[in-house]
């Protein structure tokens, strides 16, 4: 009987544990989770904070008791892994016990970057876990803050800003970068800034936040501050065990999600990802890839040989009714990666105007030399997800712009136009190429 130990729960860890147990019911699977919750929808936390659900526990998928009784997985919460000995194949836990294993999966996730002077003050928060979200909600109810600053203009920062604004606060978003969503797209930044400003949320770009005061952030008044400046992989425990880290600082893995140490795998936000457009390792922590990697790591720990092909970097965020979807590379990112990038951007109705169609903006990026599609950005109100997912599929299939322009997409007046905005953008990009 083999023993599989998983350090970390939630997306990658529990996906790994469940898959391993399903493929090999005879194996002993133990999950070590230092927190209280092992499966919950972390991406729903901003919506809980906004007020769309009354209890954060609504985000919980399975309890530890359920996993023990119904799935046969030994889930140990409230205990942390303190060290790993690959030579003895043993994990030392914070309660003093030791856990032996035949195969080990690191699913230790990531933590929010908080390394700013003043970040330990009681009105400073991050939004990554259920207890953190509940702490923000309690602060809003008890302290009745009026002014909020969100530091960071990525997915989480923009979602947190919207949630706080819906709670009646004056909200300012600050970022030290010159653009939102780390895409290097000035046009997108301008569009987002104008849109959120309509809802009373100003965006301060190139704002150097060196410290957080008791009532301000870089001169901006603040009764409550949410830090959303990115994540750092929890890779220290693995590194101490001799596991090699990649150039991103996350755990380096191959396509079997094996590390350089025999019998040790890594999955989720603690590990690097292969970017399928650039063929280079990247650090792109998202729940979608964490779940996929967890399933594959669990299968391989159970004796199978499944491969994780990588990601194209697809994401979507909604801000005050505006959907923004991205996949692959922006023009700036493509040039940085060494491509001869060409971009075309168009605005067209998302569906027939007489059916209430609103403008959708699409930018496509391609490589001039090969004609290969490299990336897409879609902004609109209707079917942003469908369009960006179509583009992500094309990137996965390594389609050229010419092939993409000939896609047979569905049309009916309530849903789309005869020429979908994606195809209009592709035609324009063909001309530019």
Tell me what you see in this structure.
The protein has helices spanning 10-23, 45-50, 64-71, 130-143, 155-166, 186-197, 236-240, 287-301, 331-336, 384-396, 401-404, 421-432; strands spanning 3-7, 28-33, 39-40, 60-62, 74-77, 81-85, 90-93, 98-100, 103-106, 110-112, 124-125, 147-151, 170-174, 203-204, 216-217, 220-221, 224-227, 231-233, 264-266, 273-274, 281-282, 315-319, 322-328, 341-349, 359-367, 373-380. It has twelve helices and 26 strands. It is α/β, with parallel strands linked by helices. The longest helix is centred in the C-terminal third of the chain and has 15 residues, at 287-301. Helix 1 (10-23) packs parallel to helix 8 (287-301). The model has no long low-confidence stretch (mean pLDDT 96). A hairpin with a 6-residue loop joins strand 20 and strand 21. It has three domains: 3-41 and 60-110 and 232-301, FAD/NAD(P)-binding domain (3-Layer(bba) Sandwich), CATH 3.50.50; 124-227, FAD/NAD(P)-binding domain, CATH 3.50.50; 322-432, 2-Layer Sandwich (Enolase-like, domain 1). A five-stranded parallel β-sheet has the order 5-2-1-9-19.
Question: Which terms would index this structure?
Answer:
FAD/NAD(P)-binding domain, alpha/beta, 433 residues, five-stranded parallel sheet, 3 domains, 12 helices, Enolase-like, domain 1
Write the layout of secondary structure elements.
Blueprint lengths: L2 E5 L2 H14 L4 E6 L5 E2 L4 H6 L9 E3 L1 H8 L2 E4 L3 E5 L4 E4 L4 E3 L2 E4 L3 E3 L11 E2 L4 H14 L3 E5 L3 H12 L3 E5 L11 H12 L5 E2 L11 E2 L2 E2 L2 E4 L3 E3 L2 H5 L23 E3 L6 E2 L6 E2 L4 H15 L13 E5 L2 E7 L2 H6 L4 E9 L9 E9 L5 E8 L3 H13 L4 H4 L16 H12 L1
Parallel strand pairs: 1-2, 1-9, 2-5, 9-19, 11-17, 12-13, 12-17, 13-14
Antiparallel strand pairs: 3-4, 6-7, 7-8, 10-18, 15-16, 20-21, 22-23, 23-26, 24-25, 25-26
């Amino acid at each position: 009987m083999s023993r599989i130990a998983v350090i970390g729960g939630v997306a990658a860890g529990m996906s790994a544990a469940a898959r391993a147990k399903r493929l090999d019911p005879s194996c002993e699977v133990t999950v070590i989770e230092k927190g209280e919750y092992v499966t919950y929808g972390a991406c729903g936390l901003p919506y809980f904070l906004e007020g769309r659900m009354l209890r954060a526990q609504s985000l919980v998928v399975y309890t530890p008791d359920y996993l023990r009784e119904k799935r046969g997985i030994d889930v140990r919460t409230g205990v942390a892994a303190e060290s790993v000995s690959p030579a003895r194949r043993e994990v030392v836990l914070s309660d003093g016990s030791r856990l032996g294993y035949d195969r080990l999966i690191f699913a230790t996730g990531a933590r929010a970057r908080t390394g700013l002077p003043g970040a330990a003050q009681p009105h400073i928060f991050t939004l990554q876990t259920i207890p953190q979200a509940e702490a923000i909600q309690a602060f809003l109810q008890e302290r009745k803050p009026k002014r909020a600053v969100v530091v960071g203009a990525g997915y989480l920062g923009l979602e947190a800003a919207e949630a706080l604004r819906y709670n009646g606060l004056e909200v300012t978003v600050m970022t030290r970068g010159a653009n939102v969503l780390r895409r290097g797209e000035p046009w997108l930044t301008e569009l987002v800034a104008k849109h959120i400003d309509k809802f009373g949320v100003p965006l301060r770009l190139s704002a150097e936040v060196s410290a957080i005061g008791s009532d301000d952030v870089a001169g901006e008044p603040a009764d409550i501050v949410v830090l959303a400046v990115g994540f750092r992989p929890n890779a220290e425990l693995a590194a101490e065990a001799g596991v090699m880290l990649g150039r991103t600082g996350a755990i380096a893995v191959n396509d079997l999600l094996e590390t350089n140490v025999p019998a040790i795998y890594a999955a989720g936000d603690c590990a690097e990802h292969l970017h399928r457009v650039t063929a280079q390792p990247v650090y792109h922590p998202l729940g979608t890839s964490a779940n996929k990697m967890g399933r594959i790591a669990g299968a391989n720990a159970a004796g199978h040989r499944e491969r994780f092909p990588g990601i194209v970097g697809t994401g979507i965020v909604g801000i005050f009714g505006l959907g923004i979807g991205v996949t692959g590379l922006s023009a700036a990112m493509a040039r940085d990666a060494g491509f001869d990038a060409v971009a075309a951007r168009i605005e067209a109705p998302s569906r027939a105007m007489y059916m209430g169609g609103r403008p959708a903006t699409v930018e496509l990026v391609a490589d001039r030399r090969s004609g290969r599609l490299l990336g897409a950005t879609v902004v609109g109100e209707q079917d942003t997800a469908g369009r960006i997912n179509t583009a992500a599929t094309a990137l996965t299939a390594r389609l050229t712009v010419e092939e993409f322009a000939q896609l047979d997409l569905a049309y009916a007046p309530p849903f789309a136009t005869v020429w979908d905005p994606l195809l209009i953008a592709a035609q324009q990009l063909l001309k530019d190429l």
